[in-house]
Design a protein that fits this description.
alpha+beta, Umud Fragment, subunit A, eight-stranded antiparallel β-sheet, four-stranded antiparallel β-sheet, 1 helix, 21% helix, elongated
């Protein structure tokens, strides 16, 4: 009789251990799947340099929504880049192997120019409340409009006088866009939606 009870207790403990181990394995698999899923959609990015001041400062950490610029057969699934987006991108300069963070200013087909620091899109001055450090350059240098090519973007830093961006003579191919900056999370004092 005692042996039967002992055997049942032993089997009961063994079943509970197996059940617990199986539940732990399920939890671990779910955590790995969630982590990988989040990393596919979001990426953290560290701002380097002063080109986006005062919107973003050097050393600030932001979450980048990679799904915002995801394309399938050349079409954006979630609307794609919009004027004013803060975008993380691979530098279009083949000499650079860096990622940059800039504001999207010109969309494909836009005619644009910069006159003494003021951006004109299709002959309309662009309202830019985020600019605190105005530049005084003219681009293109001849003062004529340029047209943003299909499947490319014109980007500028918010700190116009201290930014390596499209006014250096390059456009950003759509394939170079990584994602839209969504949230600043470090340092805590700067926490908030990036815009």
């Amino acid at each position: 009789m005692d042996q039967a009870v002992s055997f049942e207790l032993s089997v009961g403990r063994s079943d509970r251990r197996k059940k617990f181990a199986f539940e732990m394995l399920q939890t671990l698999v779910l955590m790995v799947a969630l982590f990988c899923g989040v990393r596919i959609v979001f990426q953290n990015f560290r701002v380097e340099g002063p080109s986006m001041q005062p919107t973003l400062s050097s050393g600030e950490l932001v979450w980048v929504n990679k799904a915002a610029y995801y394309r399938w057969n050349g079409q954006y699934i979630l609307g794609g880049p919009q004027r004013g987006d803060i975008a993380v991108l691979h530098s279009p300069d083949p000499a650079d192997d860096v990622d940059l963070i800039k504001r999207i200013i010109g969309l494909p087909g836009d005619r644009l120019r910069v006159e003494h620091g003021t951006v004109f899109i299709n002959d309309q001055a662009l309202t830019e409340p985020y600019i605190h450090f105005q530049a005084n350059y003219t681009y293109p240098f001849d003062g004529q409009d340029l047209t943003v090519p299909a499947d490319a973007y014109f980007v500028l830093g918010d700190n116009r006088s201290n930014s390596r961006d499209s006014h250096f003579g390059w456009f950003v191919p759509a394939d170079n866009l990584i994602g839209r900056s969504q949230l600043s999370y470090w340092p805590p004092a700067d926490w908030g939606i990036t815009a």
